[in-house]
């Protein structure tokens, strides 16, 4: 019997390991992921996608479109060339993203939407599933809460809004917020409503709004960046104690602001990690040819207020990495 020396054994072991790794890489399922931007919400989406994919040995190829249709289109072409077997994405535009998604369809690559998607007609022919939040319900409870707050405080609401209505989902959030105000029976007037959903731009736009309209006593924002910008604007315009903020989504920064309670009174949170994981699970079903029984999967929401300190403290413990 041939006895190998220790060095030969080590070399053979390394070769075996490298062969196994190469085999895994060659046969691993490839999934493409496109993130709409880099804000905290999408960090949570990315974590959910990565964790769910890791459980199945997925090779994930991800990129950030930064809300740019041209970049999104380029990334999709790269994913097709890379031989991905499915794509999970939040399309930049209901209309302008269609052509790139059609190329995926022509290449036989199933697409799963999360958060946002295409029109109903285009989704029916091009998309396997959508994992999202009820966007209307994301705004509704904050509108109700704002109205109840105003009634108890015996004030008429003068409202400024930071919207992200270039996305259909955000328009639905705003519709829900307004519906909640109406249901509450509070007296309110929307004094100023502008697109402001990126942190830096939202801060400047919000500051300009409050300087021009100091009578505004409540700012509402439809997303994380708009909410942070609204809080910053209240401070910059010297409106602390005069203007309060209610908003959308959670990060460690926002939850800490809610706990402080001098400006940000409440946020309605999505669960982006659940959303990302759900999208990846549907992508794997599509790859395996398994039936997807339900096109629409809704993830829950939860309102966090400055009065519920136990809930906000728990959020910070549960999200020690800062991702929602």
From TrEMBL:
Organism this protein belongs to: marine metagenome
Homology family: Belongs to the bacterial solute-binding protein 2 family.
Pfam families per the UniProt record, alphabetical: Peripla_BP_4
Gene Ontology CC annotations of this record: cell envelope
InterPro entries noted in UniProt: Peripla_BP_I (IPR028082), SBP_2_dom (IPR025997)
Domain (Periplasmic binding protein): residue spans on this chain: 38-290
GO molecular function, one term: carbohydrate binding
Location relative to the cell: Cell envelope
Main localization of the protein described in the UniProt heading: other
Protein name: Periplasmic binding protein domain-containing protein
Keywords for this protein: Signal
Statement: the UniProt record of this protein carries the keyword Signal: yes
């Amino acid at each position: 019997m041939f006895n190998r020396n220790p060095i030969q054994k080590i070399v053979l072991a390394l070769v075996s390991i490298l062969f196994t790794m190469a085999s895994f890489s060659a046969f691993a399922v490839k999934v493409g992921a496109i993130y709409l931007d880099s804000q905290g919400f999408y960090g949570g989406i990315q974590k959910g996608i990565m964790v769910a994919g890791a459980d199945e040995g997925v090779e994930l190829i991800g990129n950030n479109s930064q809300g740019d249709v041209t970049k999104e289109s380029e990334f999709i072409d790269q994913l097709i060339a890379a031989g991905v077997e499915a794509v999970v994405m939040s399309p930049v535009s209901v209309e302008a993203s269609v052509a790139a998604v059609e190329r995926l369809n022509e290449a036989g690559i199933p697409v799963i939407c999360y958060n946002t998607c295409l029109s109903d007609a285009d989704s029916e022919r091009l998309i396997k599933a959508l994992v999202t939040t009820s966007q209307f319900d994301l705004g509704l409870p904050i509108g109700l809460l704002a109205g109840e707050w105003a009634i108890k405080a015996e004030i008429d609401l003068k409202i400024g809004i930071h919207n992200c209505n270039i996305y259909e989902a955000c328009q639905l959030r705003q519709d829900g917020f307004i519906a909640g105000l109406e249901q509450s029976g509070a007296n309110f007037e929307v004094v100023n409503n502008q697109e402001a959903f990126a942190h830096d731009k939202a801060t400047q736009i919000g500051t300009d709004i409050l300087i021009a309209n100091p009578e505004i006593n409540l700012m509402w924002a439809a997303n994380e960046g708009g909410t942070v910008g609204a809080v910053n604007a209240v401070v910059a315009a010297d409106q602390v104690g005069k203007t309060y903020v209610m908003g959308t989504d959670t990060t460690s920064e926002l939850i800490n602001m809610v706990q402080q309670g001098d400006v940000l009174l409440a946020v309605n949170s999505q669960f982006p990690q659940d959303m990302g994981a759900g999208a990846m699970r549907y992508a794997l079903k599509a790859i395996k040819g398994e039936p997807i029984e339900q096109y629409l999967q809704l993830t829950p929401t939860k309102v966090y207020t400055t009065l519920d300190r136990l809930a906000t403290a728990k959020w910070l413990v549960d999200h020690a990495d800062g991702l929602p």
